[in-house]
Amino acid sequence: MKFWKRLMCTARRKSPWLFHMNSGSCNGCDIEIIAALSPRYDAEQLGVLLQGSPRHADILVVTGPVTNKAVNAVKTVYDQVCGPKAVVAIGSCPATTNVYIDSRTLAGPLDKHLPVDVYVPGCPPRPDAIIAGVVKAATLLAERGSDSPTPAIVIAATTEEVQP
Amino acid sequence: MNPLLTALARLLIFPGLLFAVPAAWFFLWVERKAVALMQERVGPPFMQPFWDFMKLLGKSTPPRPGIAGFIMRAWPLIAVSSAAGAVGLLPVLPLSGGFEGDLILLLALLELPSICIIAAGFSSRSIFGEIGSAREAALSVSYNIVFLLAIVSIAASQHTFRLEALAAMHPTFLTVLGIIAILICLPAKLHINPFSLPNAEQEIYAGPMTEYAGPELAMWELAHGLEWVAATGLVATLIAPHIALAWGTSLLAGCLFVVLSVAVVLLLSVLAAATARLAIDSSVRFYWQCTLIFAVLAISSALFVRFWL
């Protein structure tokens, strides 16, 4: 049993599949996510794959300040991701709503609605910061496992590894 | 030797499950790595398909109550077992047994995963699954004509439906033509570019697999890998064992089978990386208009050889 658990931990760490959810983003962070998967940064060498269906994903990658229109969609997609799962907030918008703060069209920030595991600040963040954030989320997944859901841990993932 | 024992050994050890499952992961890795190298990326590590499989086994699945859920869970298992059975039937080793008509069984088992995919897409009730299934059905109708005609023409020229006899035959112009026709059909059979439209990633999400998660998806991945092994293995056995038969050892035949399969996988992966996805009408037109002529030519010349020469 212990061997099986260790094997599963390694598998979860080495194979993070992403689902990319745009909750009203300006498209800046979305471009950077695509850049992280492109030949220059090549996240696939860490096992990262961008999946088309939330059912296949382990990590929900959310960009944007969560508008009133998007909030229900974000919650639905989060429920569609099968456990164990993690949420990574890409950019400053889902973390703080950024320059749109106090707007009447926003339901954000993201952590009012979902348990966010990793924040990747920046407007937009660099692709290497996004990869670092995804890898940290994958490590969290491996530690968490399916049977013992721990409370969300907040980590700042930037290129300089700044602590919150 | 006891024929039942031989059949079990072929199904479970070589070229069956014990060989085919690691080979399936290896072929999936070769495919992804070849695409990555063609795009000047580093690509996934060697163990990646294995880790993906293990991780999917450990994930939860959405609750699927009732008979519909049971049917949906059954499709990937049927697909895996039929693909594994197809691999087990391949006449890799010389004098490995087999029976009259096992070619027909092999063709049926090779076709079953594709039928399972169509059924799975429709039973998932997802709009993307239904679109993917409809595409898979249209594609399967078009490439199967060419695929079956090519194999039947090879079989008709040799007067047999026994795989071992086909594997041991001397290569003729007709067999070369048939093997090329089979190779043209393989990208559609394996859902890779340019015929990847049933599970067109990012276009219709994941096609028939959109609603599948966790262990069920792992079974689909495994079935896909086993399909790779069976389909490339079929080509490899049609080219290889008569060369090995001349030298006579089983070990050599096995090695040659693996090397030729990997060569076919590399060829198909490079083709997949070099081409873009075709639309459904162009794909169907490609098979019905361009390649059907050659298949008809092949079968008519096979019948000519059979009855007049």
Number of strands of chain A: 6
Give the radius of gyration of chain A.
15 Å
Strand order of the largest sheet of chain A: 2-1-3-4-5-6
User: If helices are DSSP runs of H or I spanning 4 or more residues, what is the number of helices of chain B?
Assistant: 12
Order of helices and strands of chain A: HEHEEHEHEHE
CATH names the topology of chain A as Rossmann fold
Categorize the overall geometry of chain A: globular
Please tell me the CATH architecture of chain A by its name: 3-Layer(aba) Sandwich
**Largest binding interface between chains:** A-B, 25 and 34 residues
Largest sheet of chain B: none
Question: Structural class of the helix and strand makeup of chain B?
Answer: mainly alpha
Low-confidence stretches of chain B: none
Count of strand segments of chain B: 0
Low-confidence regions of chain A:
none
Order of helices and strands of chain B: HHHHHHHHHHHH
Query: What is the share of helical residues of chain B?
Result: over 70%
Main features:
heterodimer, A: 164 residues, alpha/beta, Rossmann fold, six-stranded parallel sheet, B: 309 residues, mainly alpha, 12 helices, 74% helix
Structure description:
The complex is a heterodimer of chains A (164) and B (309). Chain A has 164 residues and is α/β, with parallel strands linked by helices. Chain A has a single domain, classed as Rossmann fold, CATH 3.40.50. Chain A contains 5 helices and 6 strands; from the N terminus they run αβαββαβαβαβ. Chain A has a 6-stranded parallel β-sheet, sandwiched between helices. Chain B is mostly helical and 309 residues long. Chain B has one domain (3-303). Chain B is 74% helix and 0% strand. Chain B is built from 12 helices and no strands. Chain B has helices at 3-12, 17-38, 48-57, 66-89, 102-123, 127-158, 163-167, 173-189, 214-239, 241-247, 250-274, 280-308. The two termini of chain B are 38 Å apart. The mean pLDDT of chain B is 86. The A-B interface holds A 7-8, 10-12, 14-15, 17, 39, 42, 44-45, 47, 50-53, 55-56, 58, 80, 82-84, 146 and B 32, 36, 39-45, 47-48, 51-52, 54-55, 57-62, 128, 201-202, 204-206, 209-214, 217.
